[in-house]
From TrEMBL:
Organism the protein comes from: Bionectria ochroleuca
Record GO terms (molecular function): ATP binding; glycerone kinase activity; triokinase activity
Highest taxon in the source lineage: Eukaryota
Keyword 4Fe-4S belongs to the record: no
Keyword Cell membrane (UniProt): no
Pfam families: Dak1, Dak2
Annotated InterPro entries: DhaK_dom, DhaL_dom, DhaL_dom_sf, Dihydroxyacetone_Kinase
GO CC annotation terms, alphabetical: cytosol
Keywords: ATP-binding, Glycerol metabolism, Kinase, Nucleotide-binding, Transferase
Reactions the enzyme catalyzes: dihydroxyacetone + ATP = dihydroxyacetone phosphate + ADP + H(+); D-glyceraldehyde + ATP = D-glyceraldehyde 3-phosphate + ADP + H(+)
Name of the protein in its database record: DhaK domain-containing protein
Domain DhaK: 1-277
Pathway info: Polyol metabolism; glycerol fermentation; glycerone phosphate from glycerol (oxidative route): step 2/2
Amino acid sequence: MSKRHLFESPDGLVNKALRGIIAYNPSLSLDEGNRIVYDTAYNRANVSLISGGGSGHEPAYVGENMLAASVPGDIFASPSTKQIVAAVEAVPSDKGTILVVYDLGVAFSQQIVSIAATLDHCHVPGRTEHATLKEDEVELGTGPHNEPGFLKLSPPPSPSELVAKILKNCLDESDPERGYVHFAPGDETFLLVSNFGGMSHLEMGALVDELLEQLETTWSIEPVRVVCGFLETSLNAPAFSVSVVNASAAARNCSYSLDQIKSFFDGGPVALWGAALSSALSSLRRYTPAKVGDRTVMDTLIPFAEAMEKAGFAEGVDAAIKGAEATKTMTPRLGRATYVGGSSDNSELPPDPGAWGAMVAIRGLKDGHN
């Protein structure tokens, strides 16, 4: 374990780190006295989500479609009640506030198997005594605050052997203590791999490859989503966690469909995209009276936004294409096309250029996504 730090003392370190984080994330602000990081662009018409925890477990996940505010405590220590109250006041909401205490939801959390592996413990700045692992040890089942695991392996296994032990502890359904999630043939799964802070990007990439190879060959599991990164850190710990989620089983036990659950991993639920488009169109309507049937770009944008919010992205693209095609038979009521007029014999005109151009861009988004 390395005991060297750029900042050897923890005094003032958290506040200094928060000031730096705000500097390179201009959409965020800092209430330094209460140690609150909050989103300056949050929408008070939405429910405000607030969470927090000990510093050293970054990132904080504050921003659009994420938390409205985060409340960090000292290193590995919870925030105070005073901080939490101040956070609620910093991001007031017309719809109320939810304090998130690391809960994934019952249906989802019951379908996750997870375990961490540690090459050595992290070192907290300013502390002199730490538990350490020997150079010839690897520990399984460790916690993010240097909590001891359930098994020390010595001599250290090879990477493939370590991954085999990790997956056996997660997926062996014959183990009465750990085999509590059933993975049926055809169930869709997610793989989450979190770097605790001290693993290199090079090794994390190789780790994911080994995990995927063994999941397929040994367990007949091919994850439909793979996420790897600093999901929750533990200062400089050379450690990682592996989680396998049975997304199909989670969908069977909650109000969200499997496609909706997957959409959260793909950048947010489609309904939110549709809501964002509708909000943008509402703002646009302050500057133009154009509506469907006026032979303008709105003949594409309005159907796209409405269908996407109600049904999904694919349906939104189909609506955009139909809307653009429909402009071929419309009489222009607004915009430059009114200078030319419609067809005298009710024959088709070329489509409205704005509507057609928007449709091509939207269709391109679908092709790129696919």
